[in-house]
Structures are given as structure tokens and as C-alpha cells.
Amino acid sequence: MLQITKYSAIAIEEISITAIRSQGAGGQNVNKVSTAIHLRFDINASSLSPIYKERLLNLSDRRITKDGIIVIKAQQHRTQEQNKEDALKRLQGLIQSVTVVQPKRKLTKPSRSSQNRRIEDKTKRSEIKALRGNISDLG
Questions:
Q1: Are strands 15-20 and 9-10 parallel, antiparallel or unpaired?
Q2: Are 94 and 70 in contact (CB under 8 A)?
Q3: Residue 15 β-bridge partners
Q4: Angle 35-25-62 (CA atoms, 0-180°, nearest 5)?
């Protein structure tokens, strides 16, 4: 079980994990050993609560396909086990990010004194910049 929150978890059977060859330079083992992990998780077919599914599908994350499948490729480590743990942690983090509800922002209005300070600063700055210009001949 992959623990998401205190009350929800995902069964490992819902996650498809396949080993693939890592990309890039790697010496003697790069063409022989499949150490990278390709993780696929179908959001719609999962046992997550409907609200988490909806939030995940509304995320604009490049790891989520149009069909609602999360695809994570882990190839940072040298062993398959470490890459598998890394992929599972990244999946867990992605799902946990939608479990936290962001508080609504309270609309505020800048105070009159802060508005006046801003205008004064702008006029001072414009005067400084005006002094940098070319000096015309005086006579």
C-alpha cells in the first residue's frame, strides 16, 4: 500500500511498474541492465476518492496524459530498487499535492498612504532618470 493521507492509500496493484533501460552515458552496464523505472497510474480506474481524482485531472502537469494516466520515469539512481522508490515517492507527492486545500485569498485594498508613497517614489525615480539625459547647450 502506498499511503497518501492518514485515511487514504493506494494499492500497489493499481500502479503499473516496468523496468526499462536508462538513457545517456553509463559505461558498461548501460546496454545490459534495465535500471530505469517507468511508472503508470490510471487516475480514473483507481480507488482514490472522486474529489482527488477530479483535482488530479484538473492539474496542468505534463506527467498527466489526456486520458488521465500519470506517467513517471525514474532513472536518477544506479539501481532498479532506488529508482522504484523514487518513482513511488514522486507519485505520492503528486497525489498529496491535491489533498491540501488552498485557503481562499481575501481581497485587500492598498492604504491611501501606501498609494501616495508609491506615487512619490515613481516621481523621484523619473526625476533621477530625467537627469541622465543629454545636457542641451545653454547659450
A1: unpaired
A2: yes
A3: 41
A4: 65
- The cell for 79 is 539501481
**Surface-to-core class of residue 87, CB atoms within 10 Å of its CB (0-12 exposed, 13-18 middle, 19+ buried):** buried
Buried b (16+ CB within 10 A) or exposed e, 27-61: eeeeeeeebbbbbebebeebebeeebbebbeeeee
pLDDT digits (tens, 9 = 90+) for 37-47: 888 888 888 78
**What domains sit in the chain, N to C, each tagged with a CATH number?**
2-99 (3.30.160.20)
For the segment 91-105, what is each residue's pLDDT rounded down to a tens digit?
888 888 888 888 898
